[in-house]
Automatic annotation (TrEMBL):
One of its GO terms (cellular component) is plasma membrane. It comes from the Bacteria. Belongs to the auxin efflux carrier (TC 2.A.69) family. InterPro entries: Mem_transp_PIN-like (IPR004776), Na+/solute_symporter_sf (IPR038770). It is found in: Cell membrane. It is a multi-pass membrane protein. Its main location: membrane. It holds the Pfam family Mem_trans. The chain crosses the membrane at residues 6-22, 34-53, 65-83, 95-114, 126-146, 178-195, 207-224, 236-259, 265-288, 295-317. It comes from Aureimonas pseudogalii. GO terms for biological process: transmembrane transport. Keywords: Cell membrane, Membrane, Transmembrane, Transmembrane helix, Transport. This is Transporter. PANTHER family: AUXIN EFFLUX CARRIER FAMILY PROTEIN, TRANSPORTER AUXIN EFFLUX CARRIER EC FAMILY.
């Protein structure tokens, strides 16, 4: 465990510094949003481009990695929905938000810096394979489930807007959104560059390296600055249970499945990614569909704080 603390401690110190900066109002309130925008639109896409373009993925089939990772996502997503329905009495949309909150790990703002520090460049290569399929899969599945849940909730309440959503129309909207997503564009361009066989060297390679190097520290600081905006309201029983699903159950399932399918480094990265705290996407979905905002906000804060301990434990176990 003492060998893992030097890896994890700087990560959560940076998050804490970002939170303290926001609390003390040392920077304008818009700074956190600007930093998050830079990280998501420039730094991380550049890092993913560089990683994919120059990665050595080895001979292991990525399908085994994806199966291992989503073996944890699917049951945890379902368990989160059941918890919300039975313990909170949430409507169907709120139940889906709970599922998203339990399973949508923060692979960008936390996963990338943690994996880079814990497993180096080789670990980032593996994480890039997870990120490449994680965002499109989670966005598509969650959007479809939320649209269907919204229609069923409306039908139950007798609303005039109770028509079942068109799957084709919803999928077109998801594809349109993903095609404009900077992270997806960075991954696609990285694979395209990889197929050209050209080296990523010289002045342009150095610019890419410098930009990519800002992703981890700025992501953590921006995450810290964003935490004070997520207000925790009401009882913490359900957020705590959802947090346990995200930080304990999900990586445990990934470990159990991946142990039979993956080499050690790939297994370690998959488990670490699954053990990351909940990302902001859960809150974005909640605000868009106007349900479950307090649950999503509480899970984001609680899971981020608790993950300082749980991530340390998981990395110590698989490192």
């Amino acid at each position: 465990m003492s060998l893992v603390l030097p890896i994890i401690a700087p990560i959560f110190i940076l998050i804490a510094l970002g939170t303290l900066t926001a609390k003390l109002k040392l920077l304008p309130a818009t700074t956190g949003d600007a930093l998050s925008g830079f990280v998501f639109l420039v730094a991380v896409p550049t890092l993913m481009f560089r990683t994919v373009a120059t990665a050595d993925f080895g001979e292991v089939a990525p399908v085994s990695l994806w199966l291992s990772y989503f073996a944890g996502v699917v049951p945890v997503y379902a368990a989160g929905m059941v918890l919300a329905r039975r313990l909170l009495g949430a409507d169907r949309r709120g139940a889906v938000i709970a599922g998203v909150s339990a399973s949508f790990s923060n692979l960008i703002f936390v996963g990338i810096p943690v994996v880079e520090r814990a497993y180096g460049r080789e670990g980032l290569d593996v994480l890039a394979l997870i990120v490449a399929i994680h965002l499109p899969t989670m966005m598509t599945a969650s959007t479809l489930l939320l649209e269907r849940a919204a229609a069923r909730d409306a039908a139950q309440s007798g609303s005039e807007s109770a028509a079942e959503p068109s799957i084709k129309r919803t999928l077109r909207q998801v594809v349109r959104n993903l095609s404009r997503n900077a992270l997806v564009i960075g991954l696609v361009l990285g694979f395209a560059w990889r197929f050209t066989g050209l080296p990523l060297e010289g002045p342009h390679g150095e610019v890419i390296r410098l930009l990519a190097g800002t992703a981890g520290p700025l992501a953590l600081f921006a995450l810290g600055m964003s935490l004070p905006r997520y207000r925790i309201r009401g009882a913490l029983l359900v957020p705590s249970l959802v947090t346990a699903l995200a930080l304990v159950v999900q990586p445990l399932i990934v470990l159990g499945v991946g142990a039979a399918l993956l080499p050690p480094l790939w297994l370690a990265v998959a488990v670490t990614a699954a053990a990351c705290p909940v990302g902001v996407n859960a809150y974005l979905f909640a605000t868009y569909f106007k349900t479950g905002e307090s649950l999503a906000a509480a899970v984001i804060v609680v899971s981020t704080v608790v993950s300082a301990a749980t991530l340390t434990a998981w990395i110590a176990l698989v490192h």
